[in-house]
Automatic annotation (TrEMBL):
Residues 32-372 form the Damage-control phosphatase ARMT1-like metal-binding domain. It catalyses: beta-D-fructose 6-phosphate = dihydroxyacetone + D-glyceraldehyde 3-phosphate; beta-D-fructose 1-phosphate + H2O = D-fructose + phosphate. Belongs to the damage-control phosphatase family. Sugar phosphate phosphatase III subfamily. Keywords: Hydrolase, Manganese, Metal-binding. This is Damage-control phosphatase ARMT1 family protein. PANTHER family: DAMAGE-CONTROL PHOSPHATASE ARMT1.
Length: 397
């Protein structure tokens, strides 16, 4: 696809309005009204915060319930950046600004309340750490890692595909490395779009390429992401995997460098093939074949179309960028009210290289689904766009 043609396609697309939180009955409104207050209470209970932090969390709860975005403390290291991004937004209700923006700001305010960037003892303490740790220690993970041993019976192509599906469904956070072909067929049936053939042709054509894997959640999603990265490196489909994570805690479970290390340790401590993968990944990090990035833009309230030049150059130099999860999908397509049949290639034409989205559907942003498929999905009258029951693999060369 030539760059010139991409721009023409992009220009031809009318840009729909952003998804907002102030639409009665919408998923976005429920996030602000129901999810955020609960989350603030959960964070407050997860650690023995000192009285000053508890008061700050109470104030945040009040802010969320009153629904007015208050400014960051002027002393915050990033106060100026947020004031600039938030021009015309701060002071308004969370629900009256674009959904992506309001949510992002809320997570920044959680870190302010818990003192994550402050000078006190809570500096650098992940407020979502206890939840992440509980997930990683949970009994399900043992079973999921043990199931990796079943991949020994598969051909390299079957194994790569099974691990890809494990990584994809890991985004639902109830992943399973159920790698039997029956399991794969069941999972494939819930794929709203399945561009796996294009994905693998891109990977193979560039092998051993440099693959950027833009991670989403820690724990039970990051483990299968790492296992997939290991397989790509081990079978020579990738010469280098660049794993992009968040520089600091975000959207509850988003992966940070500390979470990557926790997952590597979890793999190394497991029996069987999981431990072997963990050992290879450890070596790959030491040798620079698996590298970590934690770019500040990963926590910016902005779509990828507005990414800074250094990140653009990074993605441009990759043979493929894989975007994991719902939030990355929203940022990739701009979190707008696209008619769902709008072509994925047209919406992502701005992206500086081949790109694949691996995502379970957990919010309203949706493109690239043909009208007929939409009608079939809508027919039973059950929600499918925001429940995580369906997934998609969308690729653009
Ligand atoms: O990126 P993930 O983990 O797949 O999904 C994150 C997400 O579903 O959680 C939010 C609800 O708080 C949504 O706005 C958002 O898209």
């Amino acid at each position: 696809m030539s760059g010139a043609r991409d721009e023409t396609v992009a220009e031809a697309l009318p840009t729909p309005p952003p998804i907002m939180g102030n639409v009665p009955g919408s998923y976005a409104l429920s996030v602000f009204r129901e999810r955020h207050p609960v989350l603030v209470r959960q964070v407050a209970e997860a650690l023995p915060y000192s009285p000053d932090r508890r008061r700050a969390l109470d104030r945040l709860l009040d802010e969320v319930v009153r629904d007015v975005m208050e400014p960051l403390e002027p002393s915050a290291h990033d106060a100026a950046a947020w004031a600039e991004w938030g021009r015309g937004k701060i002071g308004r209700p969370y629900v009256d600004v674009p959904f992506l923006w309001g949510e992002s700001y809320f997570y920044r305010k959680v870190l302010e309340a818990t003192g994550y960037f402050g000078d006190g003892p809570w500096r650098g303490i992940d407020p979502f750490g206890p939840m992440k740790q509980a997930e990683l220690d949970g009994p399900d993970v043992d079973g999921e890692l043990a199931a990796l041993d079943e991949t020994a019976a598969l051909s390299p192509a079957e194994r790569a595909d099974a691990l890809l599906l494990g990584s994809l469904w890991g985004n639902r956070a109830d992943l399973s490395f159920g790698v039997t072909l029956t399991g794969d067929r069941e999972k494939a049936a819930d794929l709203v779009v399945d561009d796996r053939p294009l994905l693998w042709s891109l990977v193979e054509a560039a092998a051993p390429g440099r693959i950027c894997l833009v991670a989403d959640n820690a724990g039970r999603e990051l483990l299968p992401d790492l296992v997939l990265a290991d397989d790509l490196l081990a079978c020579g489909l990738a010469g280098e995997v660049v794993l992009h994570v968040k520089p600091y805690p975000y959207f509850v479970s988003d992966a940070t460098p500390a979470d990557v290390l926790a997952c590597l340790r979890r793999l190394a401590a497991a029996p069987g093939r999981a431990a072997e993968a963990g050992a290879r990944l450890w070596d790959a990090m030491e040798e620079g074949r698996l590298t970590l990035r934690a770019h500040p833009f990963a926590c910016a309230p902005l779509p990828y179309a507005e990414m800074p030049d250094d990140l653009r150059a990074e993605f441009a130099s990759a043979s493929l960028t894989v975007m994991k999860g719902d939030l990355n999908y929203r940022r990739l397509v701009g979190d707008r009210m696209w008619p769902a049949s709008t072509p994925f290639a047209a919406v992502t034409a701005y992206f500086p290289g081949p790109v694949v989205a691996l995502r379970t559907l957990k919010s309203d942003a949706l493109v690239g689904v043909p009208e007929r498929a939409l009608a079939e999905l809508d027919a039973p009258g059950r929600p499918w766009r925001t429940t995580g029951t369906h997934a998609m693999v969308q690729a653009r060369p």
